[in-house]
Amino acid sequence: LTTKEYNSAVSTYADGLFRFALSRTRNSALAEDLVQETFAKVWVARNDIKQEKSKSYLFTTVNRLIIDHFRKSEVQEAHAQHSAHNSSGSSTPLSPDVNEVLHEALARLPEVQQTLVLLRDYEGYNYQEMAEICQITEAQVKVNLFRARKKLKTYLVRMDLVI
Amino acid sequence: MKIPVDIEPHLLDYLEGNLSGVTLAKVEAYVNANPEVLDELIGMPTLQSPTAKMNTSPLIIEEDVEQLMLEALDSSQSNDELAELNDKIKDSVPLQKEWALYQKTKLVADNSTTMPNKSRLYKKGVVIPFASKFFYRVAAAILILVGSSLSYWFAPKTTPWYTPNTLVSATPWNTGKDIIVLQKTREFSTENDHYATTPSTENRNKNQGQNTKTIRNTLDAKPLKTIQDIALLATNESPSVRITDIPQPVFTLPEKIQDISELNTNSYNNGLVAYAVKKVRRKLGLQSTPSTAAAIDKNELAYLTEKSISTITNGQINTTLQGDKSVSIRSKRLFLEIN
Predict the structure, then answer these.
(1) Distance from CA of A89 to the nearest CA of B (A)
(2) Do A47 and B131 touch (CB under 8 A)?
(3) Are A121 and B42 inside 8 Å of each other by CB?
(4) B177-180: which pairs have CB atoms within 8 A and are 24 or more residues apart?
(5) pTM (2 decimals)?
(6) In this complex, is the C-beta atom of A110 within 8 Å of any C-beta atom belonging to chain B?
(7) Binning pLDDT at 50, 70 and 90, where does residue B146 land?
(8) Which ipTM value was assigned to this complex?
(9) Do B98 and B69 meet the contact criterion of CB atoms below 8 Å apart?
């Protein structure tokens, strides 16, 4: 990547990466830090990155950083508990937004399923690209994505019944 | 289907993507060989012909439709496949509701959410390519070239740049090309007023053990015209030599030597020129070695006097003879030898 191409990648992908990281972490400051760290890593390795692979490299990097973060600080567990507490505490949301509910449901999914749903819905990646980013097989991508959809749908049904 | 006991416990972890290493490879190999295992496990049978199933079991048809819905959500399906899905659900309200629910599971990115402080991520200014492999290659090549040049220039020379008493050109002198003639005035005595045509063995042996300091002056840059110039040069380049150490000329030659007999008026001249001619002839491979000025060929003498001596000193051979200090003269350059 040249400096110009790097800056172009910042313009094009920084917002998407931030939304991805924010959806995973649900913490704006943390998401910002992770995106900054991602671009810092890309800058250091820019000579080995081709422009056409920059998007994939960025999402792979941020995904790894998110996983590392969760593994190190066990934030994921705390976050899940926090989400569960919140959802049980607000039994009848006054104006439930489907997207918000979905994000809550998403937070309950296994890590890899969260990532796959976000990559698919936010960035429109296909099975093969998602497999590369998550470093799993295409079959695993497909299965996990199906399971994630089913769980999300089930969650929506439950919420529907609650409402 | 019976799943091997060493595979079954890992299947769920495999689906969750939690396996790694050997276990992952083993389970993956099994799953690839038996793809129906996954379908059984997650309750999603492999997509089969809907019509074939429709005639047998309505439940399976529904699962197939569900799979179609999931495929429609997460993979790019053709218009025909989407039309097929629509056909299947158009008469069934539950299926339509199901499809609507699945469609709701699609997350929509909130494009109003943007990266804060994005401007910090941009890189500005000229980037010095220190990380570039090309830069290091070029730098290495330059270092090698510079190192080679330095080692060439500063390496101790095995042979001096100038060898005293060596004829530089082997081209015959009568071609008009410059011939360097060196004389060792050490071999001429100022006290006994005679000349020697060959260096004495005693002196030659003496010279071999001495360090001879050769000072080179380029007359091209600053012609030396008088004995004072030569003396000044000698003292400048060799501070140990005082100007008073270099005496005044002890003899003169006519402006231009026309005849060999003119040389006989002064034995110093004879000795000087004879020795020079002898050197030239020896270097040129000529057999004759004249012992006196009378034996010198007239043409050779003319050449020597015109090219080597008279042109420089304007008729005067300003040769200084004293002790170990000597001055040798050649046609276009001047060498001071201070022994």
Answers:
(1) 23
(2) yes
(3) no
(4) B178/B307, B178/B331, B178/B332, B179/B280, B179/B303, B179/B307, B179/B308, B179/B331, B180/B330, B180/B331
(5) 0.43
(6) yes
(7) very high
(8) 0.71
(9) yes
